[in-house]
Backbone:
């Protein structure tokens, strides 16, 4: 069953709500470590997520998660310095490789620091559903906690509701464990996405969280604020000012 989506009349915003929650660690400099046990997902390890989540070493898709070594693209790049020396470099679909080069964690969005969401491939590849770098706002309908977000990753054919460690931390009381989801907040989450907003949203690189908050809040206020988000995202609510569609997962 799909997630109901409500569009504003001008399609400058769309809303949805879901109980589905998945944690994405991609882009965090401490996401994956080569010494962790491959092909399984124990609850603890050097990296905050398990190698199996990156498809390494036996998955055919690890190169969509881990940066290839510039000297040998058949193996992942390893950080050569800094606080996470020895960890793999994991990437996000939103990137700026001109900033620090493709093998630097600074070229990607840090899942542990920046609230971002993941759009499933079928939705991301649908016109009008947003691009990498577009922004939005979310609220926990049960607790009232809020967070801005940026679209920073494209996922597989999954339901809406996958987001970064920092996103879930903002909507809950702790950073969740990407390995098993422990610590994910309770509650139904409502989202508003502003397609095309990435073209003029001034959020900087590396992304400035304060700027992201300011830009997302400005757009949220323009469409009616949190009251509109809570109302329009509810699948059982009928509102004359929005048109509803249902996207399959």
Residues:
């Amino acid at each position: 069953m799909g997630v109901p989506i409500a569009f504003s009349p001008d399609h400058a915003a769309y809303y949805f709500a879901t109980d589905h929650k998945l944690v994405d660690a991609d882009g965090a400099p401490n996401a994956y470590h080569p010494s962790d046990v491959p092909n399984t997902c124990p609850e603890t390890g050097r990296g905050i997520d398990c190698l199996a989540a990156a498809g390494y070493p036996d998955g055919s898709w690890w190169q969509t998660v881990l940066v290839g070594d510039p000297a040998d693209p058949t193996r992942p790049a390893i950080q050569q310095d800094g606080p996470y020396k020895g960890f793999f470099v994991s990437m996000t679909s939103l990137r700026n490789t001109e900033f620090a080069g493709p093998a630097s964690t600074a070229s990607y969005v840090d899942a542990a620091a920046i609230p971002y969401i993941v759009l499933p491939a079928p939705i991301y590849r649908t016109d009008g559903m947003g691009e990498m770098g577009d922004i939005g706002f979310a609220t926990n309908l049960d607790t009232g906690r809020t967070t801005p977000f940026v679209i920073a990753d494209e996922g597989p054919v999954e339901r809406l509701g996958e987001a970064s460690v920092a996103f879930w931390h903002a909507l809950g009381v702790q950073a969740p464990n990407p390995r098993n989801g422990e610590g994910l907040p309770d509650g139904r989450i409502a989202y508003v996405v502003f397609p095309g907003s990435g073209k003029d949203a001034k959020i900087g690189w590396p992304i400035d969280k304060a700027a992201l908050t300011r830009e997302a809040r400005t757009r949220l206020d323009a469409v009616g604020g949190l009251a509109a988000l809570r109302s329009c995202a509810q699948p059982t609510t009928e509102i004359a000012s929005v048109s509803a569609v249902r996207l399959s997962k």
